[in-house]
Amino acid sequence: MLDSAGSSSNVEIRSHLVAGLREVLDQGHASARELLKRPRHGLVCAQYLSGVMDGVVCCLHVAATEHFYPALNPSQSERIAVVAVGGYGRGTLAPGSDVDLLFLFPHKQGAWGESVVEAMLYPLWDLKLKVGHSVRSIDDCVREARADMTIRTALLEARFVAGDPLLFHDMVRRFGAEVVEGTAPAFTEAKLQERETRVRRAGTSRYLVEPNVKDGKGGLRDLNTLFWIAKYAYRVNDVRELVAAGLFDRKELLMFQRSEEFLWRVRCWLHFITGRAEERLSFDLQRQVATAIGYAGRSGQAPVERFMKAYFLVAKDVGDLTAIVCAALEARQQKPRASLSRLLGSFSKRKRVRALGHPDFTLKSQRLNVIDPEAFRRDPVNLLRLYEIASRDDLAIHPDASRLVTQSLRLVTPQLRNSPDANRIFLEILTARRSPEAVLRRMNESGLLGKFVPDFGRVVAMMQFNMYHHYTVDEHLIRAIGVLAEIDAGVLESEHPLANEIMPTITNRRALYVALLLHDIAKGRIEDHSIAGAKIARKLGPRLGLTEGQTETAAWLVEHHLDMSTVAQSRDLGDPKTIESFAATVQTLERLKLLLVLTVADIKAVGPGVWNGWKGQLLRTLYYETEIVLAGGHSVIERKARVEKKQDALKELLSDWGPAERDAYLARHYPPYWIKTDLARQEKHARFLRRAEQEGRTTATLVETDQFRGVTELTILAPDHPRLLAIVTGACAAAGGNIVDAQIFTTTDGLVLDTISVSRAFDLDDDELRRAERIAAAIERALKGEIKIADLVAQRRAPPQRGQTFQVAPEVIIDNVLSARHTVLEIAGLDRPGLLYDLTTAIGKLNLNIASAHIATFGEKAVDVFYVTDLTNAKIVSTARQLTIRRALLDVFGPDAEKAHATKAKAAARA
């Protein structure tokens, strides 16, 4: 250590040295930030920071070797080279990056070397820098690089900073001769495997809406990997040399440089804004980075959405470059073909290769390729045929062919778009029973899909700035087609049994596929995307070869693609008016089938965990109730018959009860209970109520888990009173229970039988049941007045945040048309812990009875619907009373909520 090797003045000198270097670093960061504000200076910023760090390291080397530990007559062992490795070795540093150093010696480190290394490291640590360091001899470097690919990669980009340059050059020479020579295939395989693992960990899609700029798919690490592999295989030191080497053309070199510049710009801003090495471009940071870079809103898109579209387009370019490098390496036989399959995604191997059926295509390395570079120019329809043959014959497309497609996009002219042959082929690809998702994704990655369908091109890489959608719009649409193909193939029946059952009976299959591809194609426009999308479907349908009827069906599906999901999740399915209104919209059984399948595919493609059995059950209930009406049944008559049928079925299950007891129990429930509750739950309720009655209890709870629906049910029995639901929701909020639905039934003898469904918190039933029982106990205590719910909810609330990431203008709709017996309150706004409790409390204070509640959450947006009456069980028709209700509910969202609501209403009126 320094202070043990010299006088006390050394400690003082080191203190002054650290203070001076701190000032250098602070000034360097300030200057780098100013550089970053200039256009196209992201990489310049990173290089400048690396240069500042070089100055710090050189200064410390001089201090250590010339002041603290000078070697007056240096021996062979008293030589040192300070080498930058890793990202620092590339000559780039982000503001919060680690500083990776190699202290290189000719032989084993001696006492002098140890002292010098410590004299350099301690000031770096005092400067609060994150330093990764290693101490090795040249022999160590060669030996360890042979055994460890991580060390080999770090040394590949080693850069001399200070000390003995001859020592460094000797290491570089031996590294090339003894490590790199003849090992390019093994290195390439290892790097691609490492990339695959890294991408899987960070998120497999490059279109995840909160991407990792460094390690995500299409991020900086992918560009690094490309250059490592190219440098190793082609023995180049600068990316510009890859043009002369034949790996890139000049356009692709510019793409590499443009991508690198953009990603460095984003990464540096992330570090500066957060003050740390933050690599994830989270929602709360996206706005700030977009503002820092200077994006503005345009054509209905917010600045942050335009910025993120630019980001995803760059990520797509990085993917294209990855394919180009891998194809070139395979051609040079520098990498095994198996890795290319993993990297690019291939179809399963074929037992035999069938004839391709067209003279312009051939197989190369068991991948589909064109016969020569003029194939697309000779016949532009071949651009589509390439993907048709790949789909038909289950073939992977050779990267050379994909690259040529991208280079030939200018051939996609209006003449090609209107070609009957080209459109027939596209429709075959879209509706193919084999892997349409994979083929469409290849078309999208090459740029062909957006060129052939320009409206699709407008949503390529478009993100929606909310927590609900996990992918960009184009990725969501392609994934939805994949889900539809799964349903079409009859797989995953357990997840969506009704959709799988009715899919074979659908006669308008082509219209369904077209509608699903187009259902969100008008996102990002000022006009409502469902209406604008229907116009696109009417324009595109005839071009694709749909009949007039098929086109109209596709357009109707696009215009109404949200209806079934909205009704199922936010309307009372036991209310006859709900079913009659929905049936009037749908009109035919065929449309009902089509809309059900489309809705399942749409929800499931939103992202992992969005689809669950609970939503499936709601959709099935709506489907079956509507089917009766559309099939010619009269809803009132049919309901009466179904109530009697269900009561008879329950009587059989309660055969151990006496006839009088059974009849008395059946009379305790109103008709909506029998319609909305399945037989198994009816029996559980009956035995639950009987047991509570035998025990002399008017307040009781029952908990059970439902793996299929992904929820835990809490059934509550209690005397009816207006604030009952507020107490229940408050107890759930205080215990951390996220309510996803509430079924409320009142018995004829004045009790309430509420079933509250909360989302699961644990995978294991035992853990989940213990949690549910704690919530149930809190509910019982609250209903008995033993605890004060308001206090518990207040303790649970998070403190208000300034400048929240998401803003959702609150909205309260009061409707007397949706139900024959109830006023419907639809309340939408920014979700938060305790919101449902606050709403039900406000409704209770307004002296309203809640007949049913329907809770839906779409990311950060909550949409809660309550069917209510006044205390005389009448609808709320007074305009003054409705105004009072609206104000009270808007107040739940804060003092500015009413103003925001009015602004939104005016904007909607203008639209």
Automatic annotation (TrEMBL):
Say yes or no: keyword Endoplasmic reticulum present: no
Name the InterPro entries for this protein: ACT-like_dom_sf, ACT_dom, HD/PDEase_dom, HD_domain, NT_sf, PII_UdlTrfase/GS_AdlTrfase, Polymerase_NTP_transf_dom, UTase/UR
Query: Which residues does the annotated region (Uridylyltransferase) include?
Result: 1-355
Q: Which gene encodes it?
A: glnD
Instruction: List the PANTHER family.
Output: BIFUNCTIONAL URIDYLYLTRANSFERASE/URIDYLYL-REMOVING ENZYME, BIFUNCTIONAL URIDYLYLTRANSFERASE_URIDYLYL-REMOVING ENZYME
Protein role: Modifies, by uridylylation and deuridylylation, the PII regulatory proteins (GlnB and homologs), in response to the nitrogen status of the cell that GlnD senses through the glutamine level. Under low glutamine levels, catalyzes the conversion of the PII proteins and UTP to PII-UMP and PPi, while under higher glutamine levels, GlnD hydrolyzes PII-UMP to PII and UMP (deuridylylation). Thus, controls uridylylation state and activity of the PII proteins, and plays an important role in the regulation of nitrogen metabolism.
Q: Origin organism of this chain?
A: Bosea vaviloviae
The residues covered by the HD domain are 473-595
Name this protein carries in UniProt: Bifunctional uridylyltransferase/uridylyl-removing enzyme
Q: Which cofactor does it need?
A: Mg(2+)
